[in-house]
Amino acid sequence: TVVVWDLDVERRRWAETAHTGRVTALCRLSTPDGELVASAGEDGTIRLWHLDSGQPRYTLRYQRGTVEALCALTVRGRVLLAAADTGGIVRIWDVGSGKQWRTLPDQHTPVRDLCTVEVQGRVMLVSTHDLGSVPEFCDRVVLVKGTVLAHGPTAEVFTPQNLRLAFGGVLRHL
Description:
By secondary structure, the chain is mainly beta. 10% of the residues lie in helices and 54% in strands. It contains 3 helices and 14 strands. The protein has helices at residues 134-138, 154-157, 160-167; strands spanning 2-6, 11-16, 23-31, 34-41, 45-50, 56-61, 67-75, 78-85, 90-94, 99-104, 111-119, 122-129, 141-144, 147-151. The chain has a 4-stranded antiparallel β-sheet with strand order 3-4-5-6, with no helix packed on it. It has a 4-stranded antiparallel β-sheet with strand order 7-8-9-10, with no helix packed on it. Strands 1-2 form a two-stranded antiparallel sheet. Strand 5 (45-50) and strand 6 form a beta hairpin. The chain is globular. It starts with a strand and ends in a 7-residue tail after the last helix.
């Protein structure tokens, strides 16, 4: 059940049975049409509700896994909703159209949380993962100035081409 409370008068504004099973994530979105609440559940759906009335706007069907995290972001004026699942997939939907906008590369580890950060005018989506350990992460990802250049099994990530791109052809042991 999703419940919206009005804290000024200390009463429940509305409540809706949102999902079969547990509600796993909630997120507030500001759109040109007003404020929305997104809820995700174990049933593989993401539901968007009008915050003021509790009326449903639409339902998004997730293709696999349980959605564990939701995050609102705005990119170039477009209101988006990012959803991450236990299978390592992050999908991003355009809230205005309800259509999937992007799918980020499979991280092969459960995504547990999402948030956005704005750095030098660019919106960054930050995620947390069950990586096991820092060495496992370092063995699986090449980062260049905070951008993931490549990810995956060590043999596929640490290729001579990726290392040249990452280090400009110079690789030194420190």
